[in-house]
Amino acid sequence: MQLHTVVHDGLLRVMEGSLIQGCLMLKWIRHSGLAGVLLLALSVNAQPVSESKWKAAFIYNVVRFSEWPAETVFDNDTINVCISVNSALSRSSDQLNNRTVNGKRLVIWAWQPSPDAPRLCHVLYTWANDREYLRQIQNDLTMKSVLTIADDDGGGDDGSIITMHTNQKKIVFDINMRAAKKARLSLSSNLLRLARTVQ
């Protein structure tokens, strides 16, 4: 099958076209709200879309299928997505900035390990190097209902709600539902079905 990927409104869709090099494994959801939306499981060496673009699209979709508590404040209808400066994604996060999801605009912030995350962020994307600091502020993040996404092949438990891994050249993710419930965040059952594990 000949495929190519295009980005449209932050969503990665697969269309007929030029051949992607390497193994490309796709998980699709046949559902009215998710039809045609690619959420995960692909080869990180597939071309022409880079790994960082796939991860950006993944973040978009996670936000799309997450719900914050009713009392959460979204100033000017914006969702603040904080991306660690330690991550490779920080250099290509512009593709997420000002995208609209569920009637709110994504605003990308470059985050350096500091106590500001619980106050500023609705979503916090971290790297393996942030793990120790993340543990220190985990209680504050939970209190503020921050959706934490860790890009960490080390597999350490830092309390993040979603942890991404590269496994045999494929991007997979695990969901910590206990952490999500403590943070009073609701994750779509459709998203849960795509996770490698749900704890």
Write the layout of secondary structure elements.
Elements (H helix, E strand, L loop, with lengths): L2 E6 L2 E6 L34 H14 L1 E2 L10 E7 L15 E2 L2 E8 L5 H4 L2 E5 L3 H13 L3 E5 L10 E6 L2 E6 L1 H6 L3 E2 L1 H6 L2 E2 L1
Q: What does the model show?
A:
- The chain is of the alpha/beta class and 199 residues long.
- It has a single domain, classed as Rossmann fold (3-Layer(aba) Sandwich).
- It has five helices and twelve strands.
- Strands 5-6-4-7-8-9-10-12 form an eight-stranded mixed sheet.
- A hairpin with a 2-residue loop joins strand 9 and strand 10.
- It starts with a strand and ends with a strand.
Beta strand %: 25-35%
Query: Could you estimate the helical fraction of the residues in percent?
Result: 10-25%
* Structure summary, number of beta strands: 12
Shape annotation? globular
**Level-2 CATH architecture:** 3-Layer(aba) Sandwich
Count of runs of 4 or more consecutive helical residues: 5
Q: Compute the gyration radius: what is it?
A: 16 Å
Read across the widest sheet, the strand sequence of neighbours is: 5-6-4-7-8-9-10-12
Elements, N to C (H/E)? EEHEEEEHEHEEEHEHE
Name the average pLDDT.
75
The termini sit apart by: 35 Å
Q: Could you please say which CATH topology applies here?
A: Rossmann fold
